[in-house]
Amino acid sequence: MRKNIYKLVDLYRHNKILAVFSVLFLILVVLNPGYAAHIPQYVDWDTIVLLAGMLVITETFKASGFFSLIASVFVTRIRTERTLALFLIMVTALLSMFLTNDITLFIIVPFTLAIRQIIANDTVKLVIFEAMAVNAGSMLSPVGNPQNMFLWNLSSIGFFDFVEMMLLPFLISLSVLMIFAFFVFSGKNIVVNKSLEAYRTFDLKLFATALLLITVFLLTNEYGIHFTGLLIVLVTMFLFYPFVLKISDWTIIVLIIIMFIDFKLLGDIDSVRKYASSLFNGKASTYWSSLMLSQVVSNVPAAIFASGFSSFTKYIAYGVNVGGNGIVIGSLANIIALRLEGSREVWGVFHKYSIPYLLIVSVLVWFSVFVMW
Q1: pLDDT band at residue 145, thresholds of 50, 70 and 90?
Q2: pTM for the whole structure
Q3: Disulfide check for 297: which of 14, 129, 193, 263 has CB 3.0–4.6 Å away?
Q4: What is the C-alpha separation between 80 and 147, in angstroms, rounded?
Q5: Are 166 and 176 in contact (CB under 8 A)?
Q6: Residue 165: closest CA among 306, 309, 316, 311
Q7: pLDDT of the residue at 172
């Protein structure tokens, strides 16, 4: 018993953001005891299932040596830090339009971490800019992120009509990000710190298992049988490669479950709802309120919450997509990227770039939409 307590204390000591949201959860439950029975309903279990499945599959790809193998080939063709950053940002933004922001990060970030093992250059900033890239790229597509899926369904407009609607903030966001990256990343040469042969070991069976599982998992999600897909992944790995389940970072799943509950409990507080109802009474106010709300409760809950007070779906979409940047909880994609990166310093460095980026993009989008047009 005492050993388990020590493990729990150590877990929270090394996961401060998990500790913060856990404390907030306890406070909100004490303040709203009547909501405790409804807590399971506050979690978007489809999202949790998707993230859990992709977490295990990504670890399987990593364990096979696939990411390291590709990275070892890739770094021989890229000469400078700036070229590496600009290329990965564009690929990340492009993938997020079709694969969704979360799935894109489960592909790109492990690949970047494989690169980190090979080169002497700092890659912390790369992961941060990849997180901002999925926020920028996914905003263009109605299936790029969860808030767009929700708002697209709410708006009842066509696929390409939604793309046209989001084109301006997308172009502004991606352009500013590329300019940011050009100046943040130097023209310093990529330095390979070890022999590349050490990173070219490859477990074909494990890779084939991962490839088969991701195909089955994405198909089951496409047809709405999410839990079946996750069960197939977990049972397969338990029977054949149980070590993958052991090395997977399950704390990220726990964190996101607690975040869902916290955000929903906050939104159910009467005083919060009454105050929010006064913020969505115009187009510009809906944009700014949705953006700022995303900084407090993340952009997916912000989109759902704002839609209950405003019929300006277009400006909610602008606000919550731009608001995915800034403070780390602005988007679950940020949490996923930083947790996958794994270092402690990444959380502070993230805000060094994300907050100025949010300030510039939010003003440019506001000026372009409400002043120029």
Answers
A1: confident
A2: 0.80
A3: 263
A4: 36
A5: no
A6: 316
A7: 97
